[in-house]
Amino acid sequence: MFLKRCSFRRFWPVLLVVVSITALAAPVAEQGLAKGPIQISADTLYGKNKPQQQAVYTGNVVMTQGDVVIHADKLTIDAAGGKVRQATAVGSPVTFTMSSAQRHGYGNTLVYKPASGEIVLIGNAHLWQGKNEINGQQVTYFLQNQQTAVTGNPGQRVRSVFYPAAAGRSTSAGKP
Model-level pTM? Predict the structure, then answer.
């Protein structure tokens, strides 16, 4: 495969273009928990500008924006007009953390939409806040208003486990 033969050093000029594009992706003040530029590291990168702007990172991929950190086997960035429209990560599984919200999760696929501030976990999706957990086929977390939507597999139900708050702690602090 072409990507496996290419080294990171051979594509550093493309990386600079992609990093420049991704740095423009998120309006800093409007991204809720994900603020600032998107930073990506990986073993390999394949980028193209035509017919669409796209970058495909493979091998030990780490994407960071503010306190959102995503780990994946493969990450595809789709951009338009110099702005990231969507980042799609796949892995075994894809994991993410959000330190300021004390959330972490995983799924087979993760779709991140910077403009709307959505993180969508698809396939064996789990989301935790502290000890509290929710899971289903798809978990969508909205960064800006910290809301969650979960759907189950066909014929299966969504599962949640919530632990009571300890005395003196806010009851909303532990819910995903």
Answer: 0.74
